[in-house]
Design a protein that fits this description.
The chain is an alpha+beta fold. Helix content is 22%, strand content 36%. Strands 1, 2, 3, 4, 5 and 6 form a six-stranded mixed sheet that branches. It is globular and about 65 Å long. The N and C termini lie far apart (41 Å). The structure holds zinc ion.
Length: 126
């Protein structure tokens, strides 16, 4: 199994609504870029609860992901935009990869917190 397949499986386990284009993995000398699209069906507006929601384009967000082979990894995520015809409210698709309006993925946050949560004595720190 190649590295790109492993990354794709890892992302699909966390967020099953992702779709990947044919060339979704791009590696340059300094950074790795992964491209994906997040879309799903939605019928009810979460603000006015009417059933008049349409898909209303996409917006690309950049999520910092865990480093792969010690290279910084950025997930270029095209999020589905929704619009309610009744109240004209627009919003983006939500994902479990990152918190709302956060550009750091939850996986990257956990990778920072886990080493800090282990017990270390003063000899290891000094
Ligand atoms: Zn609405």
């Amino acid at each position: 199994m190649s590295l790109t397949c492993i990354v794709q499986d890892l992302l699909l386990n966390e967020e099953p609504n992702l779709e990947f284009p044919t060339n979704y993995y791009e590696e340059s000398p300094k950074v790795i870029r992964i491209f994906a699209k997040l879309t799903y069906k939605l019928t009810v507006c979460h603000q006015c609860h009417h059933r008049s929601v349409i898909k209303y384009g996409f917006k690309t967000v950049h999520l910092r992901f865990t480093p792969i082979n010690d290279k910084p990894t950025i997930l270029y995520l095209r999020k589905q935009r929704f619009m309610c015809h009744h109240c004209n409210h627009t919003w983006l698709a939500r994902t479990s990869l990152a918190d709302f309006r956060c550009q750091i993925s939850n996986r990257l946050k956990r990778s920072f917190i886990n080493p800090l949560s282990t017990d270390r004595n003063l000899n290891e720190i000094a």
